Amino acid sequence: MGNGSEFPCVFFFFCLLLVFLFAPVSCSRSQRSCNATDLNALQGFVEGLQSSALGWSFNGSSSSNCCNWAGISCDAGSPLVKRVIGLDLSNQSLKGFVSSSLGRLDQLEQLNLSYNSLRGPVPVELFLLPHLELLDLSVNMLSGLIPAESNLPSIRVFNISANSFSGMHPILVGSSNLSVYDVSSNGFWGPVDTGICNSSDSIQLLRFSANMLSGDFPAGFGNCSSLSELSLDANGLTGTLPNDLFTLSSVTQLNLRGNALSGTVSNKIRNLSNLVHIDISSNNFSGAIPDVFDSLNKLEFFSASYNELTGGLPSSLSNCSRLTTISLGNNCLRGTLDLNFTALPKLKALHLGSNLFSGPIPPDLPICTQMTALNLARNNLVGEIPSSFKNFTSLSDLSLSGNNFANLFSALQILQNLPNLTNLVLTKNFRGGELMPSDGIQGFANTEVLVIANCALSGSIPPWLVNLTKLKVLDISWNHLTGTIPLWLGNLDSLFYLDISNNSLIGEIPTSLTLMKSLMYGDSSLERTASQDFPFFIKRNSSGKGLQYNQVSSFPPSIILKNNKLVGSILPGFNDLVRLHVLDLSWNNISGTIPNLSGMSSLEFLGLSHNHLTGTIPPSLTRLNFLSYFNVAYNNLVGEIPTGGQFSTFSIEDFQENPGLCGIHSTPCPRNAPSTKRDDNNRTHETIWLYLGMGSGFVTGLWAVYVMLLFQRSWRIAYFRMTDKLFDDIYVMVVLSWRRLNGKIGGQRPIS
Predict the structure, then answer these.
(1) CA-CA distance, 517 to 525, in Å (whole number)?
(2) How many CB atoms lie within 10 A of CB 680?
(3) Is 317:340 a contact under the CB 8 Å cutoff?
């Protein structure tokens, strides 16, 4: 009985050992496995891609372990089979199409395919996933319509921005948990449907920016009671702002820039007490700016530029102590600059240009010790630059152009103390017959843009400019400067935009202008260094019309010397300026021929009109593939106008008043006209000389061998033995080949 009672115990311990040994293996395997349907869905997705580096493997023993693959997360449900609930493949360089097989991941909660190169339509199956909470397809090349039958009841974050979707924007009816909705930067058209606010009372962010939405600004956004951001900028919306918009007390960002909205700015804006950022610029708003900013004490950014606003600056703006940006340019605002700048310690940018403000510059502006950009251009301001500006050490961008300021020398002496001053624009001031200061200026060590154009200044190009070693843009055009162009001007290593046109400069063009480093190689000078949207108004003609460049990188690399009294010839060294886009030497007294400039591969503008040029137009200029403007009118050029390249796009006015020119854009050429096909003639002469050289070399070599054989008996015997042997070898080879050929032909004859 003892032995019989021990057997169950032994058997029990044996079973328990098996459980301990194999249970962990079984659990580990179940943790690594995933649902077969999910696995097939993932495989179908990968098969729709043209390129990916996901590293997923659907072959071998590891094929079922998809829960361990990069970008995939599974649930913590059944210990035997895991379901895929998350797919995060953002920024994985995926290319190709989105497969409908993803719709079979019916437990999916998060799908992030953003920042890839996926294209084509999105399958309707993706918009029917019942558990999906996050859908991010942003920054791809996806297109097509969003299906009207979309049903995403669990969706919280819906982001399809920066694609090419079209049609009506989705509304997501029944998505009661929706919090973030971003369809910006697509091609959606039609009216804005505020029915999306009826779907969810949790919406915090709505972005419709940069589409083609149209119609009147709709009512209904007031139903989005939790809304924090509303962005409808860069569309085509019209009409006035509805009253319910001003009930959104929780909104912090309101962006309506770049539409066609009209009417006045309602004083009900004071109800948006949590507003931090408001941009209503580039619309058609009119009337005065309501003086209600004492209720908006959280405001940091206020832009209403490019409208039709009138009246003065609302004094209550001074109550917004958190303000960093005030941008009210391009309106019809008037009055003095009457703000308490002492109460605005965080102000970094003040843009009031292109208005009707008058009076002097407020001397307390430098109290804003964080200010970096100040634009007061194109107003009616008067007086001198306040001496307090010596303490404006934070300022980097200053535009005062188009006012009535006086005393340039004092202005430069004050502003030279600003260590961070990078961009200075003083165009169209100091027009009371002032001199360009020639000495007493020592600062501006970090200045990259200096514009003192159209100020009717007399004097010469100031020598203190030689110390501005970081200068990239220099425009002192439309003045009355005399003297010669100094040699050192071309030695400013960073200078890539030079405009000294419309002065009375004399002498020849210095060779240093053909050695400007920034125009010969490298593009470091073209990198953006100016503040975004900081205006540089560059004078282009006497009518008052100008060109606006918003940042340094928008300036085309240029040398503009037109309308002076320069003499001499066009320097051949210009051909080395491969980065130059604009070369304008017109309206001078330049003579001689046009040199070869075909090496200026970036040239777009070549102005040579109204000079005394002679000779023909080099046909090599047809190799300038980017040349869009070419004018040699009013010279003494002769010969045939080149054909080919960009020359067919020019007009007859570009060649007029050159009696010797003929051909395209002119009169037909006579037979004895000087030909501009000099390159072809040169190539013919080069070919002739090549053949003559080859022939003379052959004859010389042959005579050298003959002389050696004539006077060296041992060489002569060896040469003839070699010749005899070579002849014998060739003879034997020919005879054997002939016999083999006859044998083959004879073997193929029919038996008689």
Answers:
(1) 10
(2) 11
(3) no
pLDDT digits (tens, 9 = 90+) for 413-452: 999 999 999 999 999 999 889 999 999 999 999 999 999 9
Q: What is the pLDDT of residues 270-318, one digit of tens each?
A: 999 999 999 999 999 999 999 999 999 999 999 999 999 999 999 999 9
Cα–Cα distance between 412 and 440 in angstroms, integer?
9
What is the CA angle 460-465-467, rounded to 5? 150
**Separation between Cα atoms, residue 303 and residue 352, nearest integer Å:** 10
3-state secondary structure of 484: strand
What's the pLDDT tens digit per position in 137-153?
Answer: 999 999 999 998 899 99
The boundaries of the domain holding residue 125 are 32-54+64-132
Q: Within a domain: residue 76?
A: yes
Q: Is 245 helix (H, G, I), strand (E, B) or coil?
A: helix
Tens of pLDDT, residue by residue over 324-359, are 999 999 999 999 999 999 999 999 999 999 999 999
Q: Is residue 596 part of a domain?
A: no
Q: List Cβ neighbours of 699 (8 Å cut-off, separation of 6 or more).
A: none
Rounded to whole angstroms, how far apart are CA atoms 571 and 511?
A: 7
What is the rounded distance in angstroms from the CA atom of residue 27 to the CA atom of residue 55? 25
Dihedral through CA 22, CA 23, CA 26, CA 30, nearest 10? -170
The amino acid that residue 209 corresponds to is: S
Q: Which residues have a Cβ under 8 Å from the Cβ of 345 and sit 6 or more positions away?
A: 321, 367, 368, 369, 370
Please count the structural domains in the chain.
1
Structural domain includes residue 247 = no
DSSP for 633-644?
-SSEEEEEEP-S
Helix (H) / strand (E) containing 178: none
Task: Count the neighbouring beta carbons within 10 Å of the beta carbon of residue 274.
Answer: 14
Give me Rg for the CA atoms of the chain. 40
At 321 the three-state DSSP class reads coil
- Distance in angstroms between the alpha carbons of the first and the last residue of the chain: 112
For residue 345, give the DSSP letter: T
In degrees and rounded to multiples of 5, residue 459 shows phi and psi of 105, -155
Question: 661: which strand partners?
Answer: 639
Query: What's this model's pTM, rounded to 2 decimal places?
Result: 0.81
Give the model confidence (pLDDT) of 563-594 as tens digits.
Answer: 999 999 999 999 999 999 999 999 999 999 99
* Residue 278 phi, psi (nearest 5): -135, 130
Q: What are the tokens at 240? A: 């006035």
Give me the CATH number covering residue 49. 3.80.10.10
The DSSP H or E segment spanning 29 is: helix 2-32
Question: How far apart are alpha carbons 465 and 483 in whole angstroms?
Answer: 15
Q: CA–CA separation, 268 vs 248, rounded Å? A: 11
